[in-house]
Amino acid sequence: MPRLSQLSRSITSKVAIVTGAASGMGRATAHLFADEGAHVAVVDQNGDGVAEVTDEITAAGGSAAGWALDVSDSTALASMVDDVVRRWGGLDILINNAGISRGAPIDHAEYEAAWDRTLEVNLTAQVKLIRLALPHLLASGAGRIVNIASTEGLGASAFASPYTAAKHGVVGLTRSMAVELGSRGITVNCICPGPIHTGMTEAIPDAAKTKFARRRVPLRRYGDPEEVAHGTLNFVLPASSYINGVVMQVDGGLRVQNT
Ligand code: NAI
């Protein structure tokens, strides 16, 4: 009898761009994709971090190259996409992960600057990169886009409205792109991480993390970057060809716990 399961769970030889890949979830995703056989473009504004992660991956036998750039810089993004396509012959996967978190009470003097920069990096850069990657993802025949939002894309915390608005925007962008690009063979999905141990949450004291997790997270702990990377990997598998427009929490159950 022929095998009933026909679809592939391999991303070997796929070409992936991962932004914010010098740290945290981006780094874990770049490593995981390379371990799974993909060619990975390690993209981040932290040049030393880009070199480190690229070296780590190649030392482990993976295929990676680095681009140090600010994702709000359209010219740098365009030349990176061209380089990636020239180097590996195409582009199959785009992971829009780079992000910043900056406290911003609405009546604070710095609010507008925080708003502008947060929207630019956390939302507009994702749009720019989708537009630049689009012709190549179409040529791939099975393009995959995963945008990283946050549980702040589904609810809200005080003093973070630029971040919350940007992440709600990422959820909306994902849904519109899923509807618009689905008929052209590209899937677009979104991950909403909960509290994860990364550079972004490094400054929060351990006691505060433990207290928060015990109170709010059914799994009673912060997540690790690799646990998010596996969620992302699932969306980009060839076998995930009918998964489109999904907004998936990777949050230990935070969003569904009432009390
Ligand atoms: P991280 O701070 O460890 O990594 C973020 C990376 O993005 C850094 O390497 C940084 O250099 C890079 N980056 C920031 N601005 C950039 C720019 N303009 N151009 C290029 N690279 C830039 O943080 P983490 O947590 O791994 O963040 C990844 C994504 O996950 C972000 O979009 C963040 O908003 C999101 N997130 C994080 C959560 C957490 O608990 N850590 C929770 C929910 C969402």
Topology diagram in text:
Elements (H helix, E strand, L loop, with lengths): L14 E5 L4 H12 L3 E6 L2 H13 L3 E6 L5 H15 L4 E4 L14 H30 L3 E5 L12 H21 L5 E7 L12 H11 L8 H12 L10 E4 L9
Parallel strand pairs: 1-2, 1-4, 2-3, 4-5, 5-6, 6-7
The structure holds 1,4-dihydronicotinamide adenine dinucleotide.
The site of 1,4-dihydronicotinamide adenine dinucleotide has 28 residues, from helix 1.
Please describe what this structure looks like.
44% of the residues lie in helices and 14% in strands. It is an alpha/beta fold. It has one domain: 3-Layer(aba) Sandwich (Rossmann fold), CATH 3.40.50. The chain has a 7-stranded parallel beta sheet, with helices on both faces. α1 packs across α7 and α4 (111-140) packs parallel to α5 (161-181). The longest helix has 30 residues, at 111-140. Bound molecules: 1,4-dihydronicotinamide adenine dinucleotide. 1,4-dihydronicotinamide adenine dinucleotide (NAI) binds at residues 20, 22-26, 44-46, 49, 70-72, 97-101, 121, 148, 150, 193, 195-196, 198-201.
The CATH architecture would be 3-Layer(aba) Sandwich
Coarse structural class: alpha/beta
Mean pLDDT comes to 98
The description of the largest β-sheet is: 7 strands, parallel
Distance between the termini: 50 Å
- The 3D shape can be described as globular
Total strands: 7
Poorly predicted parts: none
Kindly provide the radius of gyration, computed on alpha-carbon positions and rounded to a whole number of angstroms.
18 Å
Each distinct ligand: 1,4-dihydronicotinamide adenine dinucleotide
**In DSSP terms, counting alpha (H) and pi (I) runs of 4 or more, how many helices?**
7
Tell me the helix content: 40-55%
CATH topology, by name, is: Rossmann fold
The H/E string reads EHEHEHEHEHEHHE
β content, as a range?
A: 5-15%
Total separate domains? 1
Arrangement of strands in the largest sheet: 3-2-1-4-5-6-7
